[in-house]
Specification:
Elements: E1 4-6, H1 14-23, H2 31-39, E2 43-49, E3 52-61, E4 66-74, H3 83-94, E5 99-101, H4 109-114, H5 130-135
Parallel strand pairs: 4-5
Antiparallel strand pairs: 1-2, 2-3, 3-4
Helix pairs in contact: 1-2
The structure holds coenzyme A.
Length: 140
């Protein structure tokens, strides 16, 4: 499968990004909010096949010590074909000196384990939608 991997978001359809996040069961918002969150990230990755966006992800970082990965999503019909791995490795290559943290969607921990991530014993989060995140299985 021939893939195009781009780090810039010049020609991204943010409506499609929002719809994809919704479709794969992740938190989603207005397209403009996603546009802003990607634009404010240090690294963004967009994977296309034959011009169609099929997966994306982003990371925020201080560029020296720490980086956090968010919004990694692959269209369902393209999952389990190595595209998520490409996105994570592309992000990690950009911050080779950094620690990485993320919170996996419940049930997706195994994907990150294949990439070397380990569960944190002391990870803490203060979510705006605390009850919702608890119900969805992110917090105790
Ligand atoms: C989770 C997701 C990003 C993984 O991307 P992907 O392209 O499907 O995964 P890959 O094909 O790169 O898989 C790499 C490895 O992880 C494993 N893996 C993938 N999803 C897994 C899961 N849910 N549980 C356990 N292992 C998983 C694969 O079997 C593969 O293992 P291998 O290298 O031994 O063959 C993708 O399935 C997705 O977008 N899911 C819906 C949205 C989501 O939950 N995103 C994550 C938010 S934290």
């Amino acid at each position: 499968m021939e893939l195009e991997i781009k780090l810039d978001y010049a020609d991204v359809n943010w409506q499609f990004v929002a719809e994809t996040l919704k479709r794969v069961g992740m938190a989603y918002a207005e397209p403009a909010a996603h546009q802003k969150s990607f634009e404010n990230s240090q690294v963004t990755v967009f994977v296309r096949r034959e011009g169609q966006l099929i997966g994306f992800g982003r990371a925020i970082s201080d560029g020296v010590f720490q980086a956090a990965i968010y919004d990694v999503a692959i269209l369902p019909e393209y999952q389990a074909q190595g595209i998520g791995t490409i996105i994570i490795k592309t992000i990690m290559d950009k911050f080779s000196n950094c620690n990485f943290i993320l919170y996996a969607a419940p049930g997706k921990e195994g994907f990150y384990q294949t990439l070397g991530f380990r569960k944190m014993k002391t990870g803490m989060a203060l979510f705006l939608k605390a009850e919702q995140m608890k119900e969805r299985g992110f917090t105790e």
